[in-house]
C-alpha cells in the first residue's frame, strides 16, 4: 500500500532528534526521516546542487538525477526545492530481470527501447500511478495487454521522460546525471521534452555525481556545517 498526502514537518532519528519543520538540519549521524515516499529528498545532494547550479551561470537551471527514481532540484535565491517525479530505471530493471530470469538487470544501452514504439494504453496506465516500482505493479499495468518486449521498454522510457519533464517545467536548462543517462533511448526521449544538457558539460561526470555528494557529506559532517534550509522535501513555511 502506498500512502500519499501533505506533511507539515518531519522528525530526524539518530544521534539527536529535531523537528524538521522548524530547525535546520546538519548531516550528522545515521538517521531516517519518519516520512519517506519511495524517493525521499536527501539534504546532502540538495546542498551539492545548490552550489553547483549557482556556479553554472544559469539563473533558471534545474538538476535532474535519473537513477532507479527521478529527483529534480530547483534553486531560486536562497531556496532549494527537491522532489521526486516518480520512477526512473527501476521498472525497466524489474522487467528485464523477469524476461531474462535474472540474467540481466536492465536495458542499460537502450537496445530494446530503441527498437520499440510507445504503447499508448500502457503509457496511460503508468501515468495514472507513477509510483509503482515492483513486479506486482508491473504485472498490474500490463494485465490484459500483449506488449512485445521492445515496445514495453520504449513505453517505460517515454513514461520516465514525461514525468521528469513535468517536474522540470519552465526551466531554461536541465542538467542531467545518473545511471539513466547511460541509456541513449532515455536521453533522446528527455531531449524531446526538455532543454537537456549532460552534467559532464558542467564538470561533473554523469555517473559520479553521487560520489561528489558523498564527499560533500563527509566534509559537512566533519566540520558540523549546516547542510540545507527548510525547503528540502517541499516544506512550506507556516503562515
Structure, explained:
It is a single chain. Strands 6-5-4-7-8 form a five-stranded mixed beta sheet, sandwiched between helices. Strands 2-1-3 form a three-stranded antiparallel beta sheet, with no helix packed on it. The two termini are 32 Å apart. Helices cover 35% and strands 16% of the residues. α3 packs across α5 (149-167). The chain has a domain at 90-160. The longest helix is centred in the middle third of the chain and has 19 residues, at 149-167. The model is unreliable at 1-7, 9-41 and 233-239 (pLDDT under 50). It has helices at residues 43-55, 90-99, 120-128, 135-142, 149-167, 184-193, 209-223, and strands spanning 11-13, 18-19, 32-33, 61-66, 69-76, 79-87, 173-177, 196-198. It is α/β, with parallel strands linked by helices and 239 residues long.
Helices and strands in order:
Layout: E1 11-13, E2 18-19, E3 32-33, H1 43-55, E4 61-66, E5 69-76, E6 79-87, H2 90-99, H3 120-128, H4 135-142, H5 149-167, E7 173-177, H6 184-193, E8 196-198, H7 209-223
Parallel strand pairs: 4-7, 7-8
Antiparallel strand pairs: 1-2, 1-3, 4-5, 5-6
In short:
InterPro entries: Anhydro_N_Ac-Mur_kinase. The protein has 239 residues and is of the alpha/beta class.
Cα shape: elongated
Number of strands: 8
Radius of gyration, rounded? 18 Å
What structural class should be given to the helix and strand makeup?
A: alpha/beta
Major β-sheet profile = 5 strands, mixed
Q: Assign a percent range to the helix content.
A: 25-40%
Beta-strand proportion: 15-25%
Q: What is the residue-averaged pLDDT?
A: 80
Low-pLDDT parts are: 1-7, 9-41, 233-239
- Numbering strands along the chain, what is their spatial order in the largest sheet? 6-5-4-7-8
| Secondary-structure element string | EEEHEEEHHHHEHEH
The count of helical stretches stands at: 7
Cα(first) to Cα(last) distance is 32 Å
Amino acid at each position: 500500500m502506498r500512502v500519499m498526502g501533505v506533511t507539515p514537518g518531519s522528525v530526524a532519528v539518530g544521534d539527536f532528534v529535531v523537528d524538521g519543520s522548524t530547525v535546520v538540519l546538519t548531516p550528522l549521524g545515521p538517521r531516517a526521516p519518519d516520512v519517506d515516499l519511495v524517493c525521499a529528498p536527501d539534504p546532502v545532494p540538495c546542498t551539492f546542487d545548490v552550489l553547483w547550479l549557482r556556479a553554472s551561470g544559469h539563473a533558471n537551471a534545474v538538476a535532474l538525477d535519473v537513477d532507479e527514481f527521478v529527483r529534480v532540484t530547483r534553486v531560486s535565491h536562497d531556496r532549494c526545492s527537491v522532489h521526486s517525479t516518480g520512477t526512473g530505471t527501476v521498472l525497466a530493471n524489474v522487467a528485464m530481470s523477469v524476461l531474462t530470469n535474472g540474467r540481466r538487470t536492465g536495458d542499460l544501452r537502450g537496445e530494446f527501447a530503441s527498437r520499440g514504439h510507445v504503447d499508448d494504453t500502457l503509457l496511460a496506465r503508468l501515468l495514472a500511478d507513477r509510483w509503482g516500482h515492483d513486479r506486482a505493479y508491473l504485472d498490474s499495468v500490463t494485465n490484459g495487454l500483449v506488449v512485445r518486449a521492445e515496445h514495453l521498454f520504449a513505453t517505460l522510457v517515454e513514461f520516465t521522460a514525461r514525468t521528469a519533464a513535468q517536474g522540470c517545467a519552465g526551466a531554461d536548462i536541465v542538467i542531467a546525471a545518473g545511471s539513466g543517462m547511460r541509456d541513449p533511448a532515455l536521453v533522446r526521449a528527455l531531449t524531446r521534452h526538455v532543454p537537456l544538457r549532460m552534467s559532464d558539460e558542467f564538470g561533473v561526470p554523469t555517473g559520479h555525481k553521487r560520489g561528489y555528494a558523498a564527499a560533500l557529506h563527509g566534509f559537512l559532517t566533519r566540520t558540523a556545517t549546516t547542510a540545507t534550509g527548510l525547503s528540502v522535501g517541499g516544506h512550506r513555511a507556516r503562515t
